[in-house]
Write a structure and sequence with these properties.
Structural class: alpha+beta
Strand order of the largest sheet: 1-2-6-5
Radius of gyration: 21 Å
Distance between the termini: 43 Å
Number of helices: 7
Strand content: 15-25%
Largest sheet: 4 strands, antiparallel
Length: 271
């Protein structure tokens, strides 16, 4: 942990718009900012903590959207300072993805009373972070965001833990999606016409998982992508379908057309 500045009022509660934590991790720095519990315009004193371009854009938003936008930028500045990044306005791209400085990956998330920013090096790819609150249980959502294998694992859990299992898996998928928006290769599949993107796992470096890991492709509407091989995911739960290189490594290729590589696992993506 680099710092913890959990400012508290007389009642012992965290002060609104305060930086709750700034923590370092192997992949970067995470910072969190307390958001107000009710909808109200962001005070001018808080807006003044942003850079000029950020202040201008913040004033174009209203209500909770303005609060979330400002809180995320305050978290960005706290995390960026700890990571050693010079102060810079954090603007957004066409998909509302944060546009960090060259060589820096930034991901933002917010839920209810908390905004979080993750800042790290883009040397090895983009980062993604997602925050999900407890909220009300809506297990029917699971059928829209989870695969059959995941649903089966959820159903095996005690009833009191099923919703938590859904939220954890949903947060992971959201974080991966955000990282994809920041990664020029992944984004390029649809926006810039780049031919393919390869996800490589070196021998013995597969994703750590208690049961199995799985990679699935969905279109922008959340539906599976039709393909001639009727293959919609790559998973360690189906070892007979999982293709490995002679050295034991795994390559998963995302592309609109068959890459013609029998040593890779191809997942078709939309053009």
């Amino acid at each position: 942990m680099l710092a913890a500045t959990d400012e508290k009022g007389h009642d012992g509660q965290a002060v609104t718009w305060s930086t709750l934590f700034v923590r370092s991790h192997p992949f970067g720095v995470v910072a969190g900012v307390r958001l107000p519990p009710e909808k109200a315009p962001v005070p001018e004193a808080v807006l003044a903590r942003l850079l000029d371009d950020e202040q201008r854009l913040a004033r174009t938003h209203e209500g909770f959207r303005q609060q979330e936008w400002v809180g995320a930028r305050l978290a960005w500045h706290a995390a960026a300072k700890a990571f050693g990044v010079p102060a810079q306005a954090l603007l957004s791209g066409d998909e509302r993805q944060p546009l960090g400085p060259p060589g820096v990956s930034v991901s933002l998330t917010h839920k209810r009373d908390l905004a979080i920013a993750l800042v790290g090096s883009a040397e090895h790819g983009a980062l993604g972070v997602d925050l999900e609150g407890e909220g009300r249980e809506r297990l029917r959502v699971a059928e829209r965001v989870l695969r059959a294998e995941e649903l089966e694992l959820i159903r095996r859990e005690p009833a009191s833990r099923q919703w938590l299992g859904v939220m954890v898996r949903f947060a992971v998928k959201e974080a991966v999606y955000k990282a994809g928006l920041l990664d020029s290769n992944l984004l390029g599949l649809g926006a810039f016409g780049i031919g393919s993107y390869t996800m490589h796992f070196a021998p013995g470096q597969e994703p750590p998982a208690g049961a199995f890991w799985s990679v699935t492709v969905y279109d922008s509407g959340g539906k599976l992508v039709a393909n001639p091989q009727n293959r919609y995911s790559v998973s360690s739960s189906r070892p007979d379908e999982l293709v490995r290189r002679p050295d034991g490594s795994i390559d998963i290729v995302f592309s609109p057309s068959d890459p013609g590589d029998p040593g890779a696992n191809w997942l078709k993506v939309p053009r």
